[in-house]
Design goal:
Chain lengths: 232, 368
């Protein structure tokens, strides 16, 4: 009990004094995961819209694959990205391994299927007749895609937040491709793992609290979105 | 005499779904300024035909827009942009009433001021100007469908396509909206195709009615033609066998209105302003036939039926338990009687007799 209370007290102190190391780690986390979310949104929403709106044979198989990708284990992604970026791997010449860029890449790979899967579901959940109505209003195929995407903007926002929630809390890939280098590639999750293993519970708790707050913020917005109703 | 060029003409239109022909219409035209109704039971192919006409689903055959073949002499997109469609569900976008109404204009790249003017005018026509800033999510069923109609009319389409637009409304909002729609269609002279399963709605709103069944158009013509002279058994059973008469109101006295029909005057319960064009619907079971008793002077009895005419039997047909008697009283009329009555009255073709029906048996449908 002593351990927890003491840890909480010290964690609180680290938070309110804006401990430079904790702040640095938090900012890097936001930067890496934010960038990865941005990239996966661009790729995931466009590909998702394409899959949802286009008619092609084997569509179900593709959707199934995407949905499987939503649960991609981060360590597997970390493994593949590591191999990819390994010194004598296919992209080794980039020298990206153990950099924040590598973490962005890995997190983008994790988040893209999440964004894409939710995008497909969101667009497919729109009333079928809405497509007819938009075409009947004189829309081109491109205008149709744009208007449907706009119509699904709330679930799409949910997709983005789910993607962000997935990567900000991910630890396996980040530690594998980023290396948890102090002041360089150390993020909230990798730092928490390390501090805990060292027995520095106060720092670990502080980092954990920040992670929880971020997760809470994301879910608060998601809940708000889910409780809105569609117009008639 | 050459007919004016139809706005839309379909030649050998067909739609196949899963190997089966769901629509097969060799010839159908929509004339400038008319309201054409597609009526028929569920599954008759009305909606499918409407969607084929609007290029919303793959169809076979040819569509012509003002004489130009769609897809060859006239681009499909330009054609679709000449039309507007309203569905049974309002299908509104998740934004304000104003933005919804503006969407068709925005798609067409109209300038901001032009969009604004057209939207406000259209909202005004449907009596929902006060809702313009409201979110589409907060509208009642009637308000939502008004918005959907306003959105379609805002683009000033050459042809308005309406797919059961009133079917899912409650009776309270349905009546006023039909009135409203009729007013807008008539004042703007919009050409429209209306899909409905409600025959009386079709009679009231349209210039011509096309009765559909099994993907085919069984008969197309003015309401009274379809109702009084059904082309086949199916049309007859679908429209029922009432008589439809076109007339003009002379005015009202007390509780009854006088309507001139084919040179005769018919009384109907209710009030009408003079000059009002109307369609009268009289069910055959409400038409009574009588002949003077032998020896009596005839025609001296007093009856509560306000409409008493001398008529001639033009045709008698047995319909099983009852006899269908077609009459000419200066206008056509149909009466149902029993076999016993047929015998006691000696009814046969050419027989002259007295035809009567009550003013309350006349169903009045106002036109335009």
């Amino acid at each position: 009990m002593e351990l927890i209370l003491d840890g909480l007290r010290k964690a609180f102190w680290l938070l309110v004094t804006f401990d430079p190391e904790v702040v640095g780690i938090t900012l890097l986390s936001l930067k890496v995961s934010g960038l990865a979310t941005l990239l996966s949104t661009v790729v995931g929403v466009s590909l998702g819209a394409l899959v949802a709106l286009a008619r092609f044979p084997g569509k179900r198989i593709v959707v199934g694959l995407v949905n499987t990708g939503m649960g991609l284990p981060p360590v597997v992604v970390g493994l593949f990205v590591s191999i990819l970026l390994w010194r004598n791997g296919p992209l080794g010449f980039l020298g990206m391994l153990y950099t924040p860029s590598a973490m962005v890449l890995a997190q983008t790979v994790i988040a893209t299927p999440i964004v894409m899967g939710i995008t497909v579901a969101a667009l497919q959940q729109l009333p079928q007749k809405l497509t007819l109505q938009i075409l009947a209003l004189g829309a081109t195929r491109l205008q149709l895609a744009w208007m449907l995407t706009k119509e699904a903007r709330l679930p799409l926002l949910a997709a983005v937040m789910a993607g962000f929630g997935g990567v900000i809390s991910e630890v396996g890939a980040s530690i594998m491709v980023g290396g948890n280098i102090k002041g360089y590639s150390r993020v909230l999750t990798t730092a928490t793992v390390m501090e805990t293993s060292r027995g520095n519970f106060e720092t670990a708790i502080a980092l954990g609290i920040i992670l929880l707050l971020l997760a809470y913020a994301v879910n608060l917005v998601l809940t708000q979105i889910q409780q809105r109703q569609r117009p008639r | 005499m050459s007919e004016p060029l139809p706005v839309i003409e379909g030649k050998d239109l067909f739609v196949r779904r899963g190997g089966a022909m769901t629509v097969d219409v060799p010839d159908l035209s929509v004339r400038e300024g008319e309201v054409l109704s597609l009526v028929g039971p569920n599954g008759a192919g009305k909606t499918t035909l409407l969607q084929a006409i609007s290029c919303l689903l793959p169809y076979g055959g040819d569509l012509f827009f003002r004489g130009r073949r769609v897809g060859r002499d006239y681009p499909v997109l330009a054609y679709r942009r000449s039309l507007a469609m309203v569905f049974q569900e309002p299908l509104l976008f998740d934004s304000t009433v104003f933005e919804n109404t503006a969407s068709g204009l925005r798609i067409r790249g109209f300038k901001k001021a032009a969009v604004r003017d057209a939207v406000l005018e259209s909202l005004g026509r449907f009596g929902i100007l006060h809702l313009k800033e409201r979110s589409a999510r907060s509208l009642s069923g009637g308000e939502a469908q008004r918005t959907s109609l306003a959105r379609a009319f805002a683009i000033r389409p050459d042809v308005m396509l309406l797919d059961e637009p009133f079917a899912s409304l409650d009776p309270m909002s349905r009546g006023p909206l039909i009135d409203n729609m009729e007013r807008v269609v008539r004042t703007t002279g919009t050409t429209a195709v209306l899909v409905t399963h409600d025959l009386m709605e079709a009679v009231r709103l349209s210039d011509r009615i096309a009765v559909m069944d099994g993907g085919r158009v069984r008969q197309v013509g003015p309401a009274e033609e379809v109702m009084n002279a059904p082309a086949d058994e199916f049309v007859a059973s679908f429209v029922g066998v009432g008589t439809l008469l076109r007339g003009r109101a002379e005015g009202s006295g007390g509780d009854t209105a006088v309507i001139t029909v084919g040179g005769r005057q018919v009384e109907a319960a209710g009030r009408l302003s003079p000059g009002q064009r109307v369609i009268l619907y009289i069910r055959p079971e409400n038409v009574t036939l009588s002949v003077p008793l032998d020896g009596s002077r005839g025609g001296t009895q007093i009856t509560s039926a306000r409409n008493v005419f001398a008529g001639t039997v033009t045709k008698v047909a047995s319909m099983g338990f009852y006899q269908k008697v077609s009459l000419d009283c200066g206008f056509p009329l149909v009466s149902y009687i029993t076999g016993e009555s047929r015998e006691s009255l000696g009814i046969a073709e050419g027989r002259r007799l007295t035809v009567s029906f009550k003013a309350t048996a006349v169903h009045v449908i106002k036109k335009g």
